[in-house]
């Protein structure tokens, strides 16, 4: 069976020639990961896409007709970066636009995996919410304050849509591995091999050299092994690259944790088949007694205004601690009757500071945008003119790179839920539907 | 006595999800890897990153002459105190450990 990964992240681009190569032989499934928590909590919070619309459309518009022509189900994981229902809607609109422009018809399967605050509170109250790190224990207040929570689905909802003969499967928040493991397991191949191959393929051509998240990877699944070969003729897979890939972004290179269980790579064997192809065997899957789904939730932590500036004067740099203290106290005193207590935080994010220059970002987060703006304006002006002993450059302490100097970032978010929920069924959070598009 | 980075081919840090930071040390030779694996302790990491030894995992991965180190982030990715959302610039204290 041949499965193709379009690239490491939808919207990162890929070589058109590589896509042609991949589809010059029969393709059974096409997949692409469209999400990541790497860019932080903002995208889940705001409902905006982490990926660019134009770039996403380009990547889809070339691949979708090829997948349909080959009758290869096209599985898209974690729509628009964060995978909430809003993110799914954003990506679906692009798919519909392409279908209309190219006169394409297909059955679209969709998996939404949002969960409600009540769902998470139920898990919390029932002792079914497990901490992933001691630094972030489950917290009732934080759950209640959450504005958007998604569950990260595994293979089960995707397999369900494959059974329903969906041509395109658009997922909300999904495990990266589920995109590629689901079709292999649906076709009856070994779960251990399926998850291992999926873990490598979800990054596109990252496991090849020259390395590229932005290119097409080909996976070939057999009964006792799988093989990987990049589609682009300029790249090759090597044993070192493929074996090293399970180090990347993983907490443990031997174990891949999935909602269904653990994929164990302790006995995996890697073999160079030809100059560009690597064969892997020996990976085994151990089903978990208790199934879990990861929940990711965010809450609004306020509204941000920032002001970047640079200090070049070494005398000023020497006095930075005093200046920061003076500014902080001044803002507190100046706003004591006008702003509610604890309605803002100021962080001075400093970088550099050796002889040459000190970079500063005044980072203000307020309960409202107005509060953040006010505090930023006061901090900036006070810092610009802050005096210290022996000061000679009395015209100003800060070089501003921009006019306006203050930048309104808007609402910002932080992770409020990042826990494992024990579930009775791995389908319990998934809302699955199909519809016929076009023609 | 050399800095850890001088023993390695690749030395990198990255989020393993927003709650954890993970470090990959990849070596040119098995000998280099074993030399470091025998000497690098949780106490070194604890001191370099101010994190308790119980929270640190050091996992040699001999398949590609490498060592992986993982521990929880003190400041979760994207929290107000966090300065490195992707976690890919946290490797310098590790690089500077002298063995």
Describe the structure.
Chain A has 13 helices and 22 strands. With 439 residues, chain A is α+β, with helices and mostly antiparallel strands. In chain A, strand 10 and strand 11 form a beta hairpin. In chain A, helix 8 runs antiparallel to helix 9. Chain A is globular and about 75 Å long. Chain B has four helices and four strands, in the order H-E-E-H-H-E-E-H. At the A-B interface, helix 10, strand 19 and strand 21 of A face strand 2, strand 3 and strand 4 of B.
Which keywords apply here?
heterodimer, A: 439 residues, alpha+beta, 10-stranded mixed sheet, 7-stranded antiparallel sheet, 13 helices, globular, B: 99 residues, 4-stranded antiparallel sheet, 4 helices, 4 strands, 25% strand
Q: Could you tell me how far the N terminus lies from the C terminus of chain A, measured between alpha carbons in angstroms?
A: 29 Å
Please state the overall shape of chain B, judged from the principal axes of the Cα atoms. globular
Strand order of the largest sheet of chain A: 15-16-11-10-1-2-3-8-4-22
Give me the secondary-structure category of chain B. Answer: alpha+beta
| Residue share in helix of chain A | 25-40%
- Largest interface by Cβ-Cβ < 8 Å: A-B, 34 and 31 residues
Tally the beta strands of chain A.
22
Query: Segments of chain A where pLDDT lies below 50 for 5+ residues?
Result: none
Number of helical runs of chain A? 13
Oligomer state equals heterodimer
- Distance from first to last alpha carbon of chain B: 5 Å
DSSP strand tally of chain B: 4
